[in-house]
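User: Some background: our group keeps a shared notebook of sequences we're curious about, and every so often someone picks one and asks for a predicted structure to add to the entry. Today it's my turn. The entry only has the sequence so far, pasted here. Could you supply the structure so I can complete it?
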Amino acid sequence: MKGYSNNTQYIAEVSYASVVNIAEETSKIKIEVGLRENLLLSPVRIKARTLLINPFSRKPAVSDIYLSALQREEAYAEKVRAALTRKDVAIRDFFDIDYAIKNLQLNLNDSRTFKLIIEKLKVPGNLPIDISLSRKDELRSQLNTRLKPVLRQVDFENFDLERAYGIVIDIGKKIMKKIEE
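Assistant: Of course. Here's the predicted structure to add to the notebook entry:
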């Protein structure tokens, strides 16, 4: 585990030999832990379960566990902040926002969610909002190298970078207008 940003962010990578992966390489899980700010909403307790099913018993290969998580609105407020201010723009942020709007009824214009995004942007250490076209070019270059390898084919085919970028740009413009008022 390595610390970054004056030890307010930690990134760890766990490697393991997969029994499912046919290749002889080890599989990796990247874990990011942020400690730079307090939560705005109380965490929720959720059940996490595996997608891995034992092919013989047809039962989950790993027992369910319970853990604390961000409320959905706060998690997506952080996603929007990342999409708007991350130094090295990441296609995953745009995919996640687009997916949540299409499939999870996320409404970024909802007053509560909009206020959460603004509060997240006020946290010290954020870079300024960047809605430049050069970010879209960088995102386009990440489609096949960073997004396609981690998605199911159907999810990749349903992703529209123009739509996702437009959503983020639109909310960025609304936030900048609100901040100027």
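Suggested note for the entry: The radius of gyration is 18 Å. The CA atoms of residues 37 and 123 lie 7 Å apart.
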